[in-house]
Fold this sequence. Notes:
Elements: E1 15-18, H1 25-34, E2 38-40, E3 45-47, H2 59-77, E4 83-95, E5 101-104, E6 111-118, E7 125-129, E8 150-154, E9 159-164, E10 169-171, E11 180-193, E12 202-203
Antiparallel strand pairs: 1-9, 2-3, 3-4, 4-11, 5-10, 6-9, 6-11, 7-8, 7-10, 11-12
Amino acid sequence: xxxxxxxxxxxxxxxxxxxxxxxxxxxxxxxxxxxxxxxxxxxxxxxxxxxxxxxxxxxxxxxxxxxxxxxxxxxxxxxxxxxxxxxxxxxxxxxxxxxxxxxxxxxxxxxxxxxxxxxxxxxxxxxxxxxxxxxxxxxxxxxxxxxxxxxxxxxxxxxxxxxxxxxxxxxxxxxxxxxxxxxxxxxxxxxxxxxxxxxxxxxx
Length: 204
């Protein structure tokens, strides 16, 4: 038996938290109302309002998501500069049985997130892709975190997931008879990054 140590360097962070409360009747009513004004995606529908967290019924949800965005930056990025992350666009996705959400990433954003409003706890998941180019592609016997081209996480109602906006992801064909409802959002920063003396300063 060969003794060895395997270290994962430069990993891609996927932050998972939870909103530890149920949505209020007012919040749920707003989710239902927003479904009436939508545009069609490749495989499901999205609210026409793509600044949904700026609406008054979602004010408390926005505060709780802001806390998790700040926690992501504190624990994962740990910036030296005095910067403030903030949510830019936000929208609702509605996925019915046999629908899906196409494979995509989020340009013009640093971090993206999803808050799950209604999920089938046994069937719903989010799938991520490793898009790094492989010069040689070997056949794999046992998949793991190092050799996988995709990875998925099961999601439950109340879950909040944050990840780099460049990470490609999708929702495969929906199983179960519930309407999967998620609130997706993008995050950028305000403040100064880089150093003046290094000629890398950028004021945002």
